[in-house]
Amino acid sequence: MMRHDGDARILDANGNRVREGLRVLDDLARFVLDDAALAAEFKDLRHAVTARLERFGTAPIAARDVEGDLGTGTTTQGETTRPAIATVAEAAGGRVAEGLRALEEMSKLAGQTDEAAAFEATRYRAYGVVARVVAGLRRGRPAGWRVQVLLTEAVCRRPWRDVLDAAIAGGADAIQVREKTLDDRALIDRVRAVIDVARPAGVAVVVNDRVDVAAATGADGVHLGQDDFPVEDARVVVGDLAIVGGSAHDLDEATRLVAAGCDYCGIGRFAESRTKPDVVSRGADFVTEFTSNHPGMPHLVIGGVGPDTIDAVIAAGGRAVAVCDAVCAADAPEEVVSGLRLRLEAASIADHAAADV
To answer: Are residues 83 and 170 in the same domain?
Structure first.
C-alpha cells in the first residue's frame, strides 16, 4: 500500500543524510586537514541546506517513522569497512550528492522549482569541495607514490640538504630519513629539518626503523625492517593516520605485512646494492610475484634501483621505487628522480590505457 506521507519521509531522510555527510566532511577538514577555509565551506553548505529544508515546514520531521523504515536494517559490505581515511570522505561525499539529488527531485514534485534549482546548485558546489577534501587526504599517501628517496648523508656526494632539495625538485613523493649512526638527539633534529623542507612541498617524510622518533617529530610515518616493531604495535605509537611501511624479502613476509595492515611494502632487494650488500637479490621474479598476488597493495621496489635497472623494474610489474645510491650519490639528483618518475608514470598511464581497451 502506498503511504500518503512518502514524499515528506523522503525529504526528511535525505535532509538528514546530507547534513550528516557534511558534518563528517566538516570534521575531516577541521581536525585532520586543519583547513579552516574548507571547514567553513562545509558549515555554510550545511546551514544553507537546513534553511532550505525549513521552507517545507514541519511535514518532513512529522512524517519520520524510524521503526517503519525498511532500510534501517539493511547494510552492505562496503558500509562496514573503510580501508583509508580518504574513503571516509568519499563515502560522506557520496551521501551528500545522493541526498541533494533526492531533495532536488522532491522539490520539483512539490512545485518548488526555485528550491529544486538551489539544491542542484548546492550539489554541484559540493562536488568541488568534496574533491578538495579527498585530494587533501590522499596527498602524500603511498597509493600515489612513484619515487621515495632514502636520504642517507654518508652516501651523499653533495651536502644532504642539497640532495634533499634536488630530490623534491625532481618530483620525489616521499623522503625516508635513513640514518643508522646518528644519536637520538641528532636524528630528531635531522628529521625535523627534513620535515621543514619537505612538508611545505607536499612531500611525505618517513623515518627508517625508529617508531619513537617518527612519533616525536610528527613525521608522516615509519618504515619497518623485519626485525623492528610489529606493524600493529607501531600503529599504537605513531597513530592510526600515520603511514606504516615495511620491508619484505619474499612473498611470505609480504603477505604477513599486508595482513597486519601495512600501508605499503618495500619489496626487494631487486639488484645488487651498496646499501645492504648482505641481502640476497630477488630480482624481477619477486616483483612479479608480489604484484600478481597483491595487485591493490602499494609497493616500492627497493635495492639496486636506478636509471640502469628501471626498465627491468617496470617490465616485472613495479610501478613505484625506493632509491638511495642512485639519487644520493648522483651528480644531478634532480635529473635522476625526474627520469625515474617519468618512466614509472608512463608505465602507469599505459596500464590504464590497456585496461580501457
So the answer is: no
* Sequential DSSP letters for 259-310: HHT-SEEEE---S--SS-TTSPP-HHHHHHHHHHH-TTS-EEEESS-STTTH
Bridge-partner residues for 12, per DSSP?
Answer: none
- Domain at 122, CATH number: 1.20.1260
Gap between the Cα atoms of 321 and 203, Å rounded: 15
Q: Is 69 in a helix, a strand, or coil?
A: coil
Residues 215 and 295 in one domain: yes
Structural domain contains residue 262: yes
Question: Going residue by residue through the chain (357 aa), what tens digit of pLDDT does each one get?
Answer: 444 556 788 888 899 999 999 999 999 999 988 889 999 999 999 999 999 888 877 555 554 554 555 454 554 544 556 667 888 899 999 999 999 999 999 999 888 899 999 999 999 999 999 988 987 887 678 988 999 999 999 999 999 999 999 999 999 999 999 999 999 999 999 999 999 999 999 899 999 999 999 999 999 999 998 777 889 999 899 988 899 999 999 999 999 999 998 999 999 999 876 655 555 567 899 999 999 999 989 999 999 999 999 999 999 999 999 999 999 999 999 999 999 999 999 999 888 777 754
Q: What is the dihedral of CA 263, 269, 274, 278, to 10 degrees?
A: 110
Grid coordinates of 23: 558534518
Instruction: Give residue 32's domain range.
Output: 6-138
Dig out the grid coordinates for 196 from the structure. Answer: 621543514
Is the pTM higher than 0.85?
A: no
> In this structure, are 226 and 324 located in the same domain?
yes
Co-location of 295 and 335 in the same domain? yes
Same-domain status, 306 and 195:
yes
